[in-house]
Amino acid sequence: VNSVGISLLAAATAVVVSLPVGILAARYPSALSRTLERLSYAGNALPGIVIALSLVFFAANYATPVYQTLALLLFAYVVRFFPQALAGSYAALERVSPRLEEAGRALGRRPVDVFARVTAPLVTPGLLAGGALVFLSTMKELPATLLLRPIGFETLATEIWRYTSVASYSRAALPALALIVISAPLVYALRVRTASDGGAPG
Questions:
Q1: Interatomic CA distance for residues 91 and 101, integer angstroms
Q2: pLDDT band at 4 (very low <50, low <70, confident <90, very high)
Q3: 43 contacts 81 by C-beta, under 8 angstroms
Q4: Which of 70, 108, 138, 188 is 20 to 30 A from 78 via CA?
Q5: CA 10/CA 17 separation, integer angstroms
């Protein structure tokens, strides 16, 4: 329950936060938007333990109330896997022709209405794909979870680590199997979507 709950929350938060950056990069290309997009991918270059240790130092010294809270753990996940959500957001927006949005605005609709009624339905599959990647990555993330989780907050990854660290492999098998069972449908769905996109005409 902890694993699924925090992973869903991380996926939703990362997708929502990545959307403005994706819109800037896809719809308003400029030196500033390109720089912001490239900086957003820095999370991919940093190991989870580096992000976790940085947040431990910051929270322990300057933000004690959030130390070892779910909010800080969620923030670490979003920073770590933001590039995956951004890739989904940007790719989805790139596939939607700006002319569709221009047509909506030419009919007198406000930009917010155009986005809600035209753009959002078209980009939803891409956003879901990016969210699924964040969900899968969060499910198996160990270093950040170990260092930042609240006391008593266990996930499948921490359970597997706890049992394998004492060579209790038979007890680690059940959480490992649960991780596979939860992740497999999403992996299959992403594989089918990738194959479908690859076969679609450009």
A1: 17
A2: very high
A3: yes
A4: 188
A5: 10
Enumerate residues 6+ apart whose C-beta is below 8 A from 8: 135
Q: Is-contact 152 114, C-beta < 8 A?
A: no
CA distance 148 to 91: 32
Phi and psi at 159, nearest 5°, equal -65, -45
d(C-alpha 67, C-alpha 74), whole Å: 12
Q: How large is the average pLDDT for residues 78-86?
A: 92
Q: Residue 103 is inside which H or E element, if any?
A: helix 98-106
**Is residue 201 predicted with pLDDT exceeding 50?**
no
The C-alpha atoms of residue 21 and residue 111 are separated, in whole angstroms, by 17
- Report residue 62 as tokens: 């300057």
Place of tokens 């990738």: 194
Enter the pTM of the model: 0.84
pLDDT at 167 over 90: no
* pLDDT one-digit tens code per residue, 123-164: 888 888 889 999 999 998 999 999 999 988 999 999 999 888
Contacts of 97 (CB under 8 A, 6+ apart): none
